Prior knowledge:
About 0% of the residues lie in helices and about 50% in strands. The protein has about 120 residues and is mainly β. The strands form two sheets. Strands 2, 4, 5, 6, 9, 10 and 11 form a seven-stranded mixed sheet that branches. A four-stranded antiparallel sheet has the order 1-3-8-7, with no helix packed on it. It is globular and about 40 Å long.
Amino acid sequence: xxxxxxxxxxxxxxxxxxxxxxxxxxxxxxxxxxxxxxxxxxxxxxxxxxxxxxxxxxxxxxxxxxxxxxxxxxxxxxxxxxxxxxxxxxxxxxxxxxxxxxxxxxxxxxxxxxxxxxxxxxxxx
Length: 125
């Protein structure tokens, strides 16, 4: 059974940090493409970071590059998204998603086959 489940969302103040986690079951991470996406009200879903197979460095969108960091914890079949210096515009529902095998461009919805339900992040004073 292939499943994806995010956790770690919450409410923070601007400038603070938050760590999201994604548990993946059913397949080992080195066989997968995994990514983080977000969607704010009235906005399209945006790809933030993703990594495919045995690649070492994740890809990042320009909007979060330098502030967000994606990492793999292969022994637990988990990935994380460390978010720092959060801004009000970062408020959104954050999704973890995955697909089998390699994807050349993994920052788009079509690259993913399985999606978590999302975890809400709010950023306000």
